[in-house]
Amino acid sequence: MKFCSDLEADFRKVSNRELAIPMENYMKNNFTYFGIKTENRRSIFKSNYELNKLEVKSNFKAIAWELFQMKEREFHQTAIDLLLKEFKKNFVLEDIQLIEKMIITNSWWDSVDTIAKYILGGYLLQFPSETLKVIERFSNSENMWLNRSAILFQLSYKEKTNFEILKSECEKHKDSNEFFIQKAIGWALRDYSRFNPNGVEAYVNSTNLKPLSRKEALRLL
């Protein structure tokens, strides 16, 4: 698509290997980078969006998926920015298929956490009747990033968080030796402790969380 080819051309013009190396190191060399800082990347995205607005608005899901399968991490970041811009509260039921594909493709904490909090979380706010079905499937998956997403999807819900679902997810995964799962449990509980400190403290003290999860959960208390 023209948007993707134009974006790639502009990214290549400003690629900077000196900046790319520390970015790649920070991500444990899981991804290749052009070496474009966030502000510049988003400026390039914005200008190409305006130039190709009709194409993008008509095909933003296909474009996002095309970008997400490309090599450099800046493409994946732009795909997420595009979905955040276009989805808002305009999901359709079938969008869970794209959301799941993006969670399990080129997975790392930076992409998964944003998708889980804002895109998966937003989808389930729009379709609350789908919550238990989707979260159970993600939670029971052998894919760790789907498990993490099931724990974190309510991060944007604040005081509207369903504490029973959160506790259920924590209980299901509390014995995991996976760092990203232990950290997610602690993060989700810590975030909710801003709205229900007594509930979170009582839960943490009544269950046997891993030390990392417990430490993170009680950080604000």
From TrEMBL:
Residues that span the membrane, as ranges: none
Highest taxon above the source species: Bacteria
Name of the protein in its database record: DNA-7-methylguanine glycosylase
Taxonomic lineage of the native organism: Bacteria, Pseudomonadati, Bacteroidota, Flavobacteriia, Flavobacteriales
